[in-house]
Design goal:
- By secondary structure, the protein is α/β, with parallel strands linked by helices.
- It has 2 domains: about 220 residues, Rossmann fold (3-Layer(aba) Sandwich), CATH 3.40.50.300; about 70 residues, Alpha-Beta Plaits (2-Layer Sandwich), CATH 3.30.70.
- It has 10 helices and 14 strands.
- Helix 3 runs parallel beside helix 5.
- The chain is elongated, with a radius of gyration of 24 Å.
- It starts with a strand and ends with a helix.
- The site of adenosine-5'-triphosphate (ATP) has 12 residues, from helix 1.
- Adenosine-5'-triphosphate binds next to helix 1.
Length: about 300
C-alpha cells in the first residue's frame, strides 16, 4: 500500500527550548486506522498539529497525498480533517450553519446534500437547527466530527476522540470511525485508552518523549512483544517453589495455590513440556490450567517504562 502521509526527520523545539519531537519518521498508509499511543506530554498533539499546519516544525518534512505541508500548504491541508481535543467557539451557531461554514472555509462549493448526509451519518440531522450550546457533550463531539468532515477530507485526525465520554458514546464513535474507514478515509487517532487502540487500530505507533519507539501492526505487536502466561491451579498449595523447579520462570500466586509460568510464545521451545515433566517428578499436581496473552496495556507499560 502507498503511504498517504510521509513524515521524515521531523523535530520540534518550542520557543521555551523544550524539544517535543526528536527526528520522527513515520508513514501512514492509505485507508488504515492508525493509533498513536503515548503517555502525557509524549508529543502526540505536537505531531498532529505539525501535520495539520497549526505548529511549525523545526526540522524535517511532511507530505500529505504527495503535497508538502509547507511549500504546498493549501493542497495538503485540504486533504485533512481535524477533530481537536478542545471544544467550540461557535456556541451560538446552529449545527447546520457551523458545519456548512467549516466546508466554506476550505473554499469548497456549497453542497447541501453532502452536509445533510454527513449530519445524518452522525445522527445529527434532528439537531440541525439547534444552537450548539444547547447540545449534550456527546452531541457536541459529533458536531466536531461533522465539521472536520465537511470539506470531504481524505485523512481524518482524531485527537483523543473519546476522552471523557461515556461507554455508550465511545462505542458509537468507534462504529462511526469504522464506517468512515469503509468510505476510504484514512484515520489517525491519538488515545490514552489502550482499549481503544486495541479495539480499533490496524497499526499502532508508540511515542515516548518525542520519539516513535515502535510502529507495528496491532496483531504483530501483540505477538512479538507480548508474553504468555500459563497458570496452573494446584491441588495442594505450596509455601515455596521446590528447588528442583528453580530452572523454570515460575512464580507462586493466589497464596500458593497457583503457579504462574511466563514464556515467550514466539520461541520454538516454550519449555512447557519440560516444566510439566519436572512438576510431575517434584510431586506437584495441578487440577486446572489456563494460558493468557499479555494485553496491549501490559506491552505498552513495558515499552514506555524501558524508555524512561
Ligand atoms: N507551545 C508550547 N510551548 C512550549 N512547550 C510546549 C508547547 N506545546 C506543548 N509543549 C510541551 O511539549 C510536550 C509535548 O506536548 P504534547 O501536547 O505534544 O503532548 P501529548 O503527547 O499530546 O500529551 P497529552 O496527551 O498530555 O496531550 C509537553 O511537555 C508540553 O508541555
Amino acid at each position: 500500500m502507498s503511504p498517504i502521509i510521509s513524515i521524515t526527520g521531523l523535530a520540534k523545539t518550542y520557543a521555551t527550548g523544550f524539544q517535543a519531537l526528536k527526528s520522527v519518521d513515520l508513514e501512514i498508509e492509505k485507508g488504515e486506522i492508525f493509533a498513536l499511543l503515548g503517555p502525557n506530554g509524549a508529543g502526540k498533539t505536537t505531531l498532529i498539529s505539525i501535520v495539520c499546519g497549526i505548529v511549525m516544525p523545526s526540522e524535517g518534512t511532511v507530505t500529505v497525498g504527495g503535497h508538502d505541508i509547507q511549500s504546498d500548504f493549501r493542497a495538503a491541508r485540504e486533504m485533512i480533517g481535524l477533530v481537536p481535543q478542545e471544544l467550540f467557539t461557535d456556541h451560538f451557531e446552529s449545527v447546520w450553519a457551523s458545519v456548512s461554514y467549516s466546508r466554506g472555509l476550505f473554499g469548497k462549493k456549497r453542497d447541501d446534500a453532502f452536509v445533510e448526509k454527513t449530519l445524518k451519518d452522525l445522527s445529527l440531522w434532528d439537531k440541525r437547527d439547534s444552537k450548539i450550546l444547547t447540545l449534550s457533550g456527546g452531541m457536541k463531539r459529533r458536531v466536531l466530527i461533522a465539521k472536520a468532515l465537511a470539506h470531504e477530507p481524505r485523512v481524518l485526525f482524531l485527537d483523543e476522540p473519546t476522552a471523557g465520554v461515556d461507554v455508550e458514546l465511545r462505542r458509537d464513535m468507534w462504529a462511526l470511525v469504522r464506517k468512515l474507514r469503509e468510505t476510504g478515509v484514512t484515520i489517525i487517532l491519538t488515545t490514552h485508552y489502550i482499549e481503544e487502540a486495541e479495539e480499533m487500530a490496524d497499526r499502532i505507533g508508540v511515542i515516548s518523549k518525542g520519539e516513535i519507539i515502535v510502529v507495528e501492526k496491532k496483531a504483530d505487536l501483540m505477538t512479538k512483544l507480548g508474553r504468555k502466561e500459563l497458570r496452573l491451579a494446584l491441588q495442594e498449595p505450596l509455601s515455596e517453589i521446590p528447588t528442583s523447579l528453580a530452572g523454570h520462570q515460575l512464580e507462586l500466586g493466589a497464596e500458593g495455590s497457583e503457579l504462574v509460568y511466563t514464556y515467550d510464545a514466539q520461541r520454538d521451545r516454550t519449555g512447557i513440556t519440560g516444566l510439566l515433566t519436572d512438576l510431575a517428578a517434584a510431586g506437584v499436581h495441578f487440577r486446572d490450567l489456563q494460558t493468557k496473552q499479555s494485553s496491549l496495556e501490559e506491552i505498552f507499560v513495558d515499552l514506555v517504562k524501558d524508555k524512561r
